[in-house]
Amino acid sequence: MIITLTPNPAVDHTSIVDCLKVGTVNRFQYSYLDPAGKGINVSRMVHRLGWPTIAFGFLAGELGVIVEKALTDEGVDYHFVRIPGQTRLNTTIVERTSGTATSLHGPGPAVDGEHIARLENLLRFWLQAGRVLVLAGSLPPGVPTDIYATYLHLAHAKGVKTILDADGEPLRRGVAARPYLIKPNVAEAERLLGRALPDLPAVVDGARELARCFGAIVVISMGAQGAVCIQGEKGWHAVPPAVERHSTVGSGDAMVAGLAVALARGDNIVEGLQMGTAAGAATAMTPGTALGTVEDVAALLPRVEIAELR
Fold it and tell me: Hey, which residues are catalytic here?
């Protein structure tokens, strides 16, 4: 089983406009509501890829009900801790002419120590059935920045492999707890390293440094340029097939899902990198915050190019 933790879920409201004009009324042509949050998206894609998964996290208010209903409709299992307040509503405006997306993300509802303890107890129980734990996304107010490190230690004690996909201080504190795999994008890796990664050689060097420092498999996603993966002394560059990209929202989460499925199956990391790259490309083909279909993932999988780094 693949377990995902999303401390700060959301409902994504995506609107498609021809061209966004700031300071005036814009009329959208299409609008979508989707359950969101990195780990939730991972569970949704893992389910599509045919693996059992359970999504954990905190939910609040009517927007939390929307998340639960959407996951129920998709057949994705979940165990959320209910808290006061309102789950985040993230608004994304996609310009059809340019393909650019503008997003507004809120902080999420406050969480107290009792809620955190309830979530930890749930995880302790379900980790007994887990093969992979994915810790992903931002933290809501009240959650300590070392919480991912705490859950990584819990997973290690149960022999569960871990994937960390976060940013800022939660990522910095988390990598010190030695996750099995980390999956930052370029901007997140730059913040973790404290320097710019302007091109492919720089990304490769950055990934190698992170792998040496933290003993983890490092996958840095680069959007249409694919991803760099370093495992020990070995490295690979995965290049996705050329597709018509409608939105990159959720592509990184879909990549994490492919990596998680490979780890759960006992595949090597190259097979996971190929699956994750195909899932990310399939998601980029969909509008707004929608995820790719399993049919598109299967069609794109043999077209992913994996080049070993020398």
Answer: 253
